[in-house]
Amino acid sequence: MLRRRHLPAPLVVAVLLAVLPIAVTFGIIVGSVGISFADTWRILAHQVVPGAVEPTWSVAHERIVLTARLPRVLLAAVVGAGLAMVGAVLQTLVRNPLADPLLLGVSSGATFGAVLVTIAGITVLGMYSVPLAAFLGALAALLIVYTLARSGGRLTTIRLILSGVVVAQVLSAAASLVIIMSSEPHAAKQVMRWTLGGLGGTTWDMLTLPLITVLVVLVLLGAQAGALNVFQLGDEMATGIGLSADRFRALVFVLTSLATGVLVAVSGPIGFVGLMMPHIARLLVGSDHRRVLPVATLLGAVFLVLADLAARTLASPEEIPVGILTSLCGAPFFLWLMRRDARKG
Q1: Spatial distance between the Cα atoms of 271 and 15, rounded to a whole number of angstroms
Q2: How far apart are CA 264 and CA 142, in angstroms?
Q3: Cα–Cα distance between 243 and 338 in angstroms, integer?
Q4: For residues 289 and 108, what is the distance between their CA atoms, to the nearest angstrom?
């Protein structure tokens, strides 16, 4: 059998690092009010180095770029990067190519926690109340799914997916029930739209926590890339080299749940990014996590920036929740993966 040839990882990373600013730029310049490529970069340059360029653009254009579009586009990049990173790690951790934060119920758990705190008006920790609730919900959902799927001592693809679907449905129904029973119709309507997954209304304050979380989790998981490579071969192999499988799995569960919870808190549940991007990364650079993690992360950032751009423009002046578009892309991809695995089986 011929071995699949992969591209050099540094080349792929370099290309994606070049493509990402281009995608971000298009995300800024395209919209109901068109802004030229030159003006966009002049405005940004003026903010980075005041006085570097003469401000010949209108105040309205500057506000659109800096207040409305730039924070939204950057948040899309952060959320896409984080979801792709989480998906890549979860697929290895449960040794299942169909694993995804949405399919495993992790996003639904985070959504339920966030909805519960939002509707109840719990603000004990201020701006961190919703992310903390989303993290706890994501972690609880992941542990429940994993426990259900391992009943009988063996983790199979069908059992994992079925457990994830059941838990996701139960938690989604619970979140909907909380929204319906809310005595605050305005809050309920806002939360209901948020549950479809979207980035509308993004502000600079919403960007800091997700960015720090994704960077920290990426560094921590990147430091465990070698252990993740061993984990692909099974718990026995990991134990054979002195790695505690249960302890390592618990650590990664906490990190992935933390990232998912924080991301869902600011964007709502956006599905299939964590399913598609890791597989595309492996097709490009192979299965070594030292290459997969950075490539999948950059792919996720580029993909969600472009998906959000499409969500804002396809039905203009109306806006499509970006979660709907990612699901329309992800569902055929999911079916293709199932058929591919069935042929291999």
Answers
A1: 25
A2: 14
A3: 31
A4: 27
Written as six digits, the tokens of 46 are 């003026």
CA distance 319 to 198: 9
Return the SS3 of 123: coil
Give per-residue pLDDT as tens, 203-258: 999 999 999 999 999 999 999 999 999 888 877 777 787 778 778 888 888 899 99
Q: With H, G, I as helix, E, B as strand and everything else as coil, classify residue 301.
A: helix
Domain assignment present for 330: yes
Number of domains in the chain: 1
What is the rounded CA–CA span in Å between residue 101 and residue 29? 31
Domain that holds residue 178: 9-30+85-344
Task: Give me 272's structure tokens.
Answer: 């299939």
Give 10-51 pLDDT, tens digit per residue: 999 999 999 999 999 999 999 888 899 999 999 999 898 888
Tokens of 158: 């069908």
Q: Residue 277 domain-assigned?
A: yes
Global pTM? 0.90
- The gap from C-alpha 44 to its chain's centroid, in whole angstroms, comes to 26
**Do residues 169 and 284 make contact, with C-beta atoms less than 8 angstroms apart?**
no
Place of tokens 């396809």: 314
